[in-house]
Design brief:
9-stranded mixed β-sheet, Rossmann fold, 2 domains, alpha/beta
C-alpha cells in the first residue's frame, strides 16, 4: 500500500506525521519512507538513516551541431518551454528552461541536436533500524523538482507499505509525488490559512481521483471552520492532534511523536487501520 502525506501549506506538521506513521508501522510491517520534498528534504533529521547509495540525477539538454543545422527553427517551434531560440542564423539554448523532454532532438530533420546529461540533483538511499529510506535532493539553483521525484519513486518496491512525504502546496512536484498512491493524507491546521490551502489540496486530489482524508493538527488554535468544511464536503477527519508545546519542543529537537510520546504509537496504528479500510472499501466499490 502506498500512502502519501501532503498539505496545502507548509508548516502544518506533514513531516512529523510522515515520520511518526513510518516508525509506528515498522513494528508490524515492512516499511519504506520516500522523502519527495526534494527542495527541502528533512525526514532524515528524524529517521537518522545510514546512507549507503547515492545516484546523480540528470536530464537531457540539447547541444546544437552548427555544421549540420540549417536554422529551420523547428526545434524552437516544438519547444513548449522556450528553451531554444533561433535568431538570425544562430541557435540559442537556455539549459535552465529545458525540461529534458527530447522533442527538439526527436523532430530535428537534420539530426543536428545531440543531448547531453545535465545533473540537477541526487538520490540518496539507506536504512534506519529496519526502515528503507530514500530521499531526493534538488541542486541549488535548479528549478525542476519532478525529475528528482520520479527517480525517488523508481527506487520504491519490495515493502508492504510505502510512505511518501510530498512537498507542501499543490503544484507539479506535489502531483508528481502523490499520483499513483492508494491514499493521500492531507495534514492541515484549524486556521484561516490552513482552511484556504486545504481547499486547494482537496481540489487537487479530487482532480486526480485519489482517495483521501484529513489529519487535523494543532487543534485548539484557530476556529471550527475547518471541521465544518470537512463535514460539508464529506471528508473524513481521521486523526486530530492538539496544540501542545511539548510536541513543538520535541519536533525542534528532531524527536518524532511516537518516540517522545509512546502513547501516540497506538493512535498512528489506528490511523493506518482507518486508511486501509477506506482503501479496501474503495477497491470493493470499483469491482462491483
Amino acid at each position: 500500500m502506498i500512502i502519501s502525506i501532503a498539505s496545502g501549506k507548509g508548516g502544518t506538521g506533514k513531516t512529523m506525521i510522515a515520520t511518526s506513521l513510518t516508525l509506528a508501522l515498522k513494528e508490524k510491517y515492512s516499511v519504506e519512507l520516500l522523502d519527495c520534498d526534494v527542495e527541502e528534504p528533512n525526514d532524515s533529521i528524524f529517521i537518522k538513516p545510514d546512507i549507503n547509495r547515492l545516484n546523480p540525477v540528470t536530464i537531457p539538454v540539447p547541444e546544437i551541431d552548427e555544421e549540420r543545422c540549417t536554422y529551420c527553427g523547428k526545434c524552437a517551434e516544438v519547444c513548449a518551454y522556450n528553451a531554444i531560440a533561433v535568431i538570425q542564423g544562430n541557435v540559442l539554448v537556455f539549459p535552465e528552461l529545458c525540461h529534458g523532454c527530447g522533442a527538439c532532438s526527436y523532430l530535428c530533420r537534420e539530426d543536428a541536436i545531440n543531448e547531453k546529461g545535465k545533473e540537477i540533483g541526487v538520490i540518496e538511499r539507506g536504512n534506519s533500524d529496519g526502515v528503507v529510506f530514500v530521499q531526493g535532493k534538488l541542486s541549488i539553483g535548479q528549478p525542476m523538482a519532478p525529475p528528482i521525484i520520479r527517480e525517488v519513486k523508481k527506487l520504491s518496491g519490495g515493502q508492504e507499505i510505502t510512505i511518501i512525504d510530498a512537498s507542501p502546496g499543490t503544484s507539479c512536484p506535489v502531483v508528481e509525488a502523490i499520483k499513483d498512491s492508494d491514499f493521500c493524507l492531507l495534514v492541515t491546521e484549524p486556521t484561516p490559512f490552513g482552511l484556504n490551502d486545504l481547499r486547494l489540496a482537496v481540489e487537487t486530489v479530487r482532480k486526480i481521483d485519489l482517495p483521501f482524508g484529513v489529519l487535523l493538527n494543532r487543534v485548539g488554535t484557530g476556529d471550527n471552520k475547518t471541521q465544518e468544511y470537512c463535514q460539508e464536503e464529506n471528508i473524513p477527519i481521521l486523526m486530530t492532534i492538539p496544540l501542545d508545546k511539548g510536541i513543538a519542543g520535541m519536533y525542534s529537537r528532531g524527536i518524532t511523536l511516537v518516540e517522545g510520546m509512546p502513547e501516540y504509537r497506538e493512535r498512528f496504528l489506528l490511523l493506518f487501520q482507518a486508511i486501509r479500510e477506506i482503501v479496501i472499501e474503495g477497491n470493493s466499490d470499483t469491482k462491483r
